[in-house]
């Protein structure tokens, strides 16, 4: 297909497609003449990937270029997913193994104890919690890690089934943002629902006395 057809198929303006070509995000088409090139479904998939990374994940052109360079170089799916996770979630450099809690949860879940940006980010967050005096009981860490392990299994299996690397990136990018937000919203609803259940178990007389006490204290 020619450029105009590619634009019509993807819904992306010709000017934007030319920009992607100039920036090296989109591979050049097969040259037909000095002014015409032929494009195929792979170009349409790459444009969809670029649009996802920009629109859903708000990545910069430089960040997108680094990710598609891995695709074009034939990098492994694991390396592409790790790079995408690092860019999308701003995880920083992998510096793992700094906290006992981090070591414990990795051993508990049987996760590979290897240097990754995600592991380093977990340790950094646990250190911040410790500085603020926020404890993480082992039982809570067990429940949280077991829950997210189940979620991760669904996400990664879905991504691994992608038929090509561009589709893989698009699925992972959407999952990292939209699915993460879904989990947070579900957690908020669950916490609210549990609070309502607990409140309903408290006798009305107790709630009334508690309210009266607060009013008296504020007077």
From TrEMBL:
**Does the record bear DNA-binding in its keywords?**
yes
- Return the SMART domains for the record: HTH_MERR
**Entries under PROSITE patterns matching the protein:** HTH_MERR_2
Q: What is this protein called?
A: MerR family transcriptional regulator
Q: DNA-binding among the record's keywords?
A: yes
Please tell me the species this chain comes from.
Sinomonas terricola
The HTH merR-type domain covers 1-70
Q: From what superkingdom does this record's organism come? A: Bacteria
Q: Which UniProt keywords apply?
A: DNA-binding
């Amino acid at each position: 297909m020619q450029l105009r057809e590619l634009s019509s198929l993807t819904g992306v303006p010709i000017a934007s497609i030319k920009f992607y070509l100039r920036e090296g995000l989109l591979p050049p088409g097969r040259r037909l003449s000095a002014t015409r090139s032929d494009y195929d479904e792979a170009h349409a998939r790459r444009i969809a990937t670029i649009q996802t990374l920009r629109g859903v994940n708000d990545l910069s052109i430089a960040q997108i270029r680094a990710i598609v360079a891995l695709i074009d170089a034939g990098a492994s799916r694991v390396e592409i997913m790790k790079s995408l996770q690092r860019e999308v979630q701003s995880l920083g450099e992998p510096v793992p193994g700094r906290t006992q809690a981090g070591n414990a949860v990795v051993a508990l879940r049987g996760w590979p104890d290897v240097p990754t940006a995600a592991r380093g980010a977990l340790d950094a967050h646990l250190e911040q919690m410790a500085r603020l005096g926020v404890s993480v009981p082992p039982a809570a860490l067990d429940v949280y890690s077991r829950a997210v392990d189940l979620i991760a299994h669904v996400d990664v299996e879905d991504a691994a089934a992608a038929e090509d690397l561009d589709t893989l990136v698009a699925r992972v990018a959407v999952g990292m943002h939209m699915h993460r937000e879904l989990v947070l919203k579900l957690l908020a609803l669950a916490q609210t629902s549990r609070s309502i259940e607990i409140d309903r178990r408290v006798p009305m007389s107790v709630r009334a006395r508690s309210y009266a006490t607060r009013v008296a204290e504020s007077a």
